[in-house]
Design goal:
Layout lengths: L1 H13 L2 H24 L4 H40 L17 H14 L3 H13 L13 H4 L12 H20 L3 H9 L1 H6 L4 H14 L11 H15 L4 H13 L13 H4 L4 H16 L7 H26 L40 E3 L5 E3 H7 L8 H19 L4 H4 L4 H8 L1
Antiparallel strand pairs: 1-2
Helix pairs in contact: 1-3, 2-3, 4-5, 7-14, 8-10, 10-11, 10-14, 17-19
């Protein structure tokens, strides 16, 4: 990647498009001036045009020189990209789980456009998708929810004005927050949904109030000026008295930190509260929190599922390409449609569900074979639990003994011989091994 970044830096330095625009504007000004001169005195047209030749030629030459540098840098950067990321065929499979579900694909695309605020593009997409629906391709698996339940989970529900208005309101609030430092629309929305947010355990309403206090304390719309520090403090204190009363039960310590910072003004940089009042990412962090809470009240995730799926797929592509080459060499195939043959390591942000592997059978649990907790607190797969409790009743410490016994039975089945502890039953040997 070092060579690629080096070419990128060179391209950035050679990027002289601003100079090219200036040259173009100078040429336009020269031509405009010549046109006005000819309009005023038509007899001087030949002389004016003759005078234009050299200036215009010089302007075009300068423009070409500027663009040559840009094209040269772009060409070198493209070669570095091709060298680093060599073209490889994408992995192919005969088991395309989504080929028979065009409504799911359209819904994901439509929802992504709405979530990104591309309402006009989303409107066109909905119109064309509904007027010219894709014909499903037959697939081997028919277990998707839209076929089994008969519910409409296509884009019909997304084309309603209600959902568009919700996202339009969200982007209006985010624009006010990010570009105008105006928290009033977000605060009004949080108050309107206060009970729901509180039931979720959300801190959004107080976070909005805290940032509003910090904004007023540090100068508000006038900025931090030594002449009006006292007025800023008084404005923040008045706001705290009006708004923080309802938050004392849950956020008393945080409120005390906010009001205690007044003793350190104007030396907030050296105060214990500098992380609250001098946080450059506070507005963006709060905007992210607001987006997450807004989407959660709509029953949606904070990030676009289409973006997450595309990113996860891009991460998985190198591993799948390698796997495909190996299977081609060994002339083998992977025929399981809903399970990958290898583990794909994704970042923690893309891991939404914990994975439980049964300590007895060493198999990953599924919806058909979910994890089950025994009375002693141990967790095993349901099938293992059924086998374990088939001829026995367990309670308390007995669960530990039976788990050990079953593990040894399972391992004995795997190697084809009987474990000595299993043969000895539930006696002191089993208890001793369990303690060890």
């Amino acid at each position: 990647m070092d060579g690629l970044m080096e070419e990128y830096d060179k391209l950035s330095k050679r990027d002289n498009l601003s100079g090219s625009l200036e040259d173009i504007q100078k040429t336009i000004d020269i031509l405009t001036k010549a046109r006005d001169s000819i309009v005023e005195n038509p007899n001087s047209a030949s002389i004016t045009l003759a005078k234009l030749q050299n200036p215009v030629k010089q302007s075009f030459d300068q423009l070409n020189n500027d663009l040559k540098e840009v094209y040269k840098g772009l060409g070198n950067y493209s070669k570095a990209l091709d060298k680093k990321f060599k073209g490889k065929p994408l992995p192919t499979t005969d088991y395309d789980a989504l080929s028979s579900q065009p409504s799911l694909i359209n819904r994901a695309i439509g929802m992504h456009l709405l979530r990104e605020g591309q309402f006009s593009v989303a409107s066109v997409f909905f119109t064309e998708a509904l007027s010219e629906p894709l014909r499903p391709i037959s697939a081997l698996d028919d277990s998707f929810p839209d076929k089994s339940s008969g519910r409409d989970i296509g884009i019909g529900s997304l084309s309603s004005e209600g959902l568009r208005k919700q996202f339009a309101d969200m982007y209006y609030i985010l624009d006010e927050m990010r570009n105008k430092n105006n928290l009033l629309p977000a605060t009004a929305w949080a108050r309107a949904h206060s009970s729901t947010l509180e039931a979720r355990g959300s801190n959004l309403e107080f976070e909005l109030g805290r940032l509003q206090f910090v904004w007023l304390f540090t100068g508000g719309p006038s900025g931090l000026k030594p002449s009006n520090l006292y007025d800023c403090q008084q404005a923040a204190l008045t706001y705290a008295r009006q708004e923080f009363g309802n938050f004392q039960a849950r956020y008393l310590r945080e409120i005390q930190q906010l009001t205690g910072a007044m003793a350190f003004c104007p030396n907030l940089q050296q105060s214990p509260y500098r992380h609250i009042f001098l946080n450059e990412d506070a507005w963006e962090d709060l905007a992210t929190t607001f987006t997450r809470e807004f989407c959660s009240l709509l029953g949606l995730s904070a990030d676009s599922p289409l973006y997450i799926a595309s990113t996860a797929g891009a991460i998985a592509l190198p591993t799948l390409l390698k796997l495909q080459n190996i299977m081609k060499e060994k002339r083998t195939e992977w025929t399981t449609q809903h399970e990958l043959p290898v583990e794909i390591l994704l970042p923690p942000a893309y891991q939404f569900h914990s994975i439980f592997v049964c300590p007895v059978s060493k198999e990953q649990t599924t919806d058909q074979n979910p994890p089950m907790m025994m009375p002693c607190g141990h967790v095993i797969a349901q099938e293992s639990l059924l086998r374990l409790s088939k001829n026995s009743r367990f309670k308390g410490k007995i669960g530990e003994i039976l788990m050990l016994r079953f593990i040894l039975m399972f391992e004995a089945d795997m190697v084809g011989e009987e474990s000595p502890i299993v043969a000895g039953g539930y006696g002191n040997g089993a208890m001793h091994s369990s303690s060890a």
